[in-house]
Amino acid sequence: MSKCDRSRPGLSCNFCLKRGLKCSGSFDSPVADLHVPTKEYDALDSRAKHDRTRQVSSLVIPDAVLREELVELYFRYVHIAFHNLFHKQTFLERVRDNSIPKILFFGVVSLSARFSTHPIFASVDPWDRGRPYREETKRLLDLENTSLVSIQACMLLVANASVEGDPNTESVYHTIAARMASLLDLPTMPTKSLLEQEINRRVWWSIIASETWSSAIHSLPRLLKPRDTVPLPMAEHQFCSLDPDVPIPPLDSPAYETVAGSGDRHSLLAQMIRLNLLLYDIILLNARVVAEQAQGAVSQGLDSNLVQDLHNWVNNLPPLLQYSQENVAHWVQSGLGSTFLIMHINYNHAGQLLFYQHLHSAQQEQDALGAYKAQTLAQKCKQHATDLCELIYQAKQRPETVVLYPLAGHILSLASTIHIHTLLFAVDESEISLAKLRLERNFEIISSMNRYWPMTHKTVKRLQHFHNACLRSQDDSFRLDTWMLQFLLGFTKDMEDRNSAWSQDHCSRELDHLRNLLEI
């Protein structure tokens, strides 16, 4: 019998690992298998083996009533905007019977505690309420446990880093989640039930959707590429009603055809994913324009295919997903009013990003025909900004639809800069008055979000830098360059003054980063 050489105690020997054999000399550790975690995470009611773990955990586990309240707050304010990682009813049931992995409960509460009105939090600043839970989530994360739970925990930590305005840590956790998802081939991983399969797919698409922002902030290429072979999420009412014990229908059954086609057109989440894929292309377009102009090339600045794709997206929505007051009422009644409004807010944000660069060209173009075209495109940008603001104002009128996710503050700040353009260059007094009113209201909303999200403080500072740039040079303040691109996309990053910080050398480094994003 050959000698059992091991890389470290407790593992199978190297001979058996190479051949995928069960090691007879290692009774306490199975053969490594990426698709089967070596150990499960502790559940909420488990008694930890080490005194330190038990002591820390006992300090941060609230009573049963507060647990449920905090989970409800997570699904109301966070799950609808950051990512789609869980099945609400199943998650709540596992919280009630204490079987939920502790790491996931802490990760959820780290994001939702800021919204609680429970007396236990009365003396704690909303910014600080979730931080102990976040630290415990980080401590419990086992990077040797490649599993769905680890991926979900990483995505919760991604959201935590984002709201704290820490883009580097956000990117690290996002990278871990993406790599684990790739190793497991998460969307096609064998599952026991239809619910498990759907959750895996939703987590996969959530990683891809959030990476649209993560890659743009750092000018890095995607880690996960969208795959046409991975079905989009099923309709919300069908997902909410799934039972954990329902198996996956046979491929040749009518039930399978129903499931396979359910994520096509009538799912809010599926439509938001489609829109997010368009948003990624819009980000690449803006990055390409900046790179071309910096190199002295003449950029067209407009992709007619993207304009048509965005037009097609909104016009091809099923009737029940089109924006109307009747549909708002329908989705509010269904408990998905905020999700419906967020979808249309995101659409208008994609539109304002697509046409933003034409705000500058509308003031600079000398040729009459070119000026008319640029002004038409700039007007499209202003209309998207106006519609976006009105949607957020409407959402604020109902407690069940109010949107408080931090990215809303960022996209509202971009809409505000578009209204500043109206103040600087419009001649119609009524148009100017409306822009002033929207700017005041936007600032109030952004300031109210600052109560919950640390990163909103950065949003306010970025607006101040933009205002300073306008004071120095109105004609140049909307030019799409490396600084403006970071202003539009890098919402969790610190921004410095446009003139004093962005030297020629700094701009050169940023252009090098853009090449990474564009993969050229």
TrEMBL record:
Superkingdom as given in the UniProt entry: Eukaryota
Intracellular or extracellular location(s): Nucleus
MF annotations from Gene Ontology: DNA binding; DNA-binding transcription factor activity, RNA polymerase II-specific; zinc ion binding
GO BP terms in the entry: DNA-templated transcription
Domain Xylanolytic transcriptional activator regulatory per the UniProt entry, residue ranges: 72-279
Organism expressing this protein natively: Aaosphaeria arxii CBS 175.79
Name of the protein in its database record: Xylanolytic transcriptional activator regulatory domain-containing protein
GO cellular component: nucleus
Principal place of residence: nucleus
Keywords: Metal-binding, Nucleus, Transcription, Transcription regulation
PANTHER family: TRANSCRIPTION FACTOR, PUTATIVE (AFU_ORTHOLOGUE AFUA_2G09360)-RELATED (PTHR47338:SF16), ZN(II)2CYS6 TRANSCRIPTION FACTOR (EUROFUNG)-RELATED (PTHR47338)
